[in-house]
Amino acid sequence: MALFWIRLSLYIFPFLRTVIAASGNCDVAPLSLPWSNVTVSANGVAVARGLELGIGSPNQIFSLRPSTTLNNTRLSNVLDCGSEANTSCVGGKGGVYNSSKSSTCSVSIKDRWNGSAADTETATGSYVYLNDFIDFQSNDSIWGFPLVEDSDLVSGTQSGLPLGQNSSFLAAVTEANVAPSKAWGLWAGDRSLSPIDGALTIGGYDPGRVAGNFATFPLGTWTLQQPCPLQVTVISIMYNQPNESFELLSSENMVACIEPFQDRFTFTPDVVNKFANVTSYDSSYRGLTYPVAQAPDGNMTITLENNYTTVISNSKFVALERGSDQFGHFQITNSSVVETEIVYNAQSDPSTVQPILGGIFLTFNYLVVDYESGHFQLAPAVQGNQHTGSQAVRAICTPTPTSNPSSSSSPPLSSQNKPRKTGIIVGGTVGGVAGLAIMGVLVLLFRRHRQQRRVQELRIEPSDRGAQLSPNVLSVTSSEEAAHSSPSELPLV
Ligand SMILES: *[C@@H]1O[C@H](CO)[C@@H](O)[C@H](O)[C@H]1NC(C)=O
Ligand SMILES: *[C@@H]1O[C@H](CO)[C@@H](O)[C@H](O)[C@H]1NC(C)=O
Ligand SMILES: *[C@@H]1O[C@H](CO)[C@@H](O)[C@H](O)[C@H]1NC(C)=O
Ligand SMILES: *[C@@H]1O[C@H](CO)[C@@H](O)[C@H](O)[C@H]1NC(C)=O
Ligand SMILES: *[C@@H]1O[C@H](CO)[C@@H](O)[C@H](O)[C@H]1NC(C)=O
Ligand SMILES: *[C@@H]1O[C@H](CO)[C@@H](O)[C@H](O)[C@H]1NC(C)=O
Ligand SMILES: *[C@@H]1O[C@H](CO)[C@@H](O)[C@H](O)[C@H]1NC(C)=O
Ligand SMILES: *[C@@H]1O[C@H](CO)[C@@H](O)[C@H](O)[C@H]1NC(C)=O
Ligand SMILES: *[C@@H]1O[C@H](CO)[C@@H](O)[C@H](O)[C@H]1NC(C)=O
Ligand SMILES: *[C@@H]1O[C@H](CO)[C@@H](O)[C@H](O)[C@H]1NC(C)=O
Ligand SMILES: *[C@@H]1O[C@H](CO)[C@@H](O)[C@H](O)[C@H]1NC(C)=O
Ligand SMILES: *[C@@H]1O[C@H](CO)[C@@H](O)[C@H](O)[C@H]1NC(C)=O
């Protein structure tokens, strides 16, 4: 209730709002990171598609794939590739880290390290906890950024940029005033044969990429066995051929993770079998690939619980087979075969399969996540190659009504109970103090306040149940690389 009155006073007395905003970090512009081809080897040969980070002094360049299940930034050790000259390996991993090359690297013992404690370790992994300097493509940089050097990353698997609920990356960019808030917006770009770069915006979103209304989904309905925060219930998957449509999802709904770390769809074996059946799949072909003459020609309509519908067009989910060449470049590898953007898991034990709506789903949808508000949002994305400069992005931020920022750094967990950020807020809409406007604001605030209470009621479960569910590490299992080079099942172990 206190927060409610503070916010109310902010709207009624604009001057007060300005004062408080100045002490928060809403003055900081959102941080935009393009999801694009990044050259990750010093000789310019190895290229990986991802979000660019320069780590250490001098910078070592990395290309990381966003991951909603990771909480820490895990990098591959240069020794995993033998040497920096192993370009196919370096490209596949999106860069490798050589700590002895960086004058600012400082190794910590785990207990003293200030990254996120949430990530679990695997028994076989070897982890080094350290802090180093990082640079973004813009001028921004952070000192003492927490990193994990992990020699357990599966060969050919790209490193992930952590966008999980306990992300030390989101914590560091907000604490260093590089981004205004921990909320983020993502368009995955287009990975079809005519590719387009995507973009991740921290502390904001890009309205130029949003083509319709946002649908809102709650966080923390942990019905899946994986630590995946963005879970949705799929109620229908229609495969539409020009002459006939098929429902691929039989009786039961399917709970799936939205996870851009993987490019493809993972459906239940049942759905994949049905798809194989209606597309006359020849199982002598590897994965879900077809001879060009028998390429599936339909599109796919995916409907979520609240009737949010996405049509995945044929040209985006059926394409000539691609894979890595010797430089780690992503190229057509067999022009007589097409592959689908669906993981082939028809033979798998259904209880081991974790459905995923991967990067391809986020080619068609713009995603906005604000963990502190307890929800995330999807809207149809504007596709196509258009200019969206970082000028276009809009902040997602409400001034933090806390004390001055020079005192103790991060707010205590209890403040999490009072969501500070409320979806997408367009700052400065209430400028005047005309009576009518105040009435409108009062109504709005009351409604928002009530919505927040509802959201809080939905957020009862995560930590306790999360512990029981033994959150396994998924960091190492899937990536664009792996998803494309071996079109087989990629279970999220
Ligand atoms: C390159 O890295 C791969 C691992 O991805 C390794 O198997 C191979 O031996 C390395 N090649 C050289 C020349 O070090
Ligand atoms: C790491 O960097 C050091 C210092 O530049 C260099 O001597 C060493 O060979 C590098 N290690 C690898 C595996 O490339
Ligand atoms: C997750 O983050 C919250 C603060 O955002 C922190 O209090 C909590 O301890 C973290 N959990 C773990 C397991 O690190
Ligand atoms: C990331 O943090 C969340 C929230 O604390 C946790 O449920 C999840 O298991 C963590 N992710 C990993 C990979 O451990
Ligand atoms: C980098 O900083 C300089 C000077 O501070 C500024 O003029 C320039 O616009 C900045 N560039 C970007 C991409 O932010
Ligand atoms: C984490 O620790 C490093 C080095 O110990 C320090 O430079 C950095 O400021 C710390 N970061 C945060 C967010 O506390
Ligand atoms: C999807 O396919 C059906 C059948 O071919 C067609 O009628 C419909 O227009 C297609 N929709 C889109 C968005 O491509
Ligand atoms: C519909 O078209 C597909 C190929 O597009 C063909 O394999 C199938 O036999 C057709 N079905 C009917 C009922 O005509
Ligand atoms: C496809 O489904 C039909 C009806 O269930 C079945 O008779 C047929 O054998 C299936 N075909 C394949 C290739 O699985
Ligand atoms: C979704 O659509 C179906 C049929 O069009 C309708 O019966 C149902 O009420 C809708 N559900 C919601 C949540 O809008
Ligand atoms: C990125 O590189 C791949 C080759 O690895 C190329 O096919 C693609 O066109 C490039 N994407 C863009 C947007 O330039
Ligand atoms: C392409 O795939 C087909 C079918 O798997 C195979 O017969 C052919 O040899 C492949 N061609 C190349 C160049 O790999």
TrEMBL record:
<keyword id="KW-0732">Signal</keyword>
<feature type="compositionally biased region" description="Low complexity">
    <location>
        <begin position="398"/>
        <end position="415"/>
    </location>
</feature>
<feature type="transmembrane region" description="Helical">
    <location>
        <begin position="424"/>
        <end position="446"/>
    </location>
</feature>
<feature type="signal peptide">
    <location>
        <begin position="1"/>
        <end position="21"/>
    </location>
</feature>
<keyword id="KW-0472">Membrane</keyword>
<dbReference type="InterPro" id="IPR021109">
    <property type="entry name" value="Peptidase_aspartic_dom_sf"/>
</dbReference>
<feature type="region of interest" description="Disordered">
    <location>
        <begin position="396"/>
        <end position="421"/>
    </location>
</feature>
<feature type="compositionally biased region" description="Low complexity">
    <location>
        <begin position="478"/>
        <end position="493"/>
    </location>
</feature>
<keyword id="KW-1133">Transmembrane helix</keyword>
<keyword id="KW-0812">Transmembrane</keyword>
<feature type="region of interest" description="Disordered">
    <location>
        <begin position="457"/>
        <end position="493"/>
    </location>
</feature>
<protein>
    <recommendedName>
        <fullName>Peptidase A1 domain-containing protein</fullName>
    </recommendedName>
</protein>
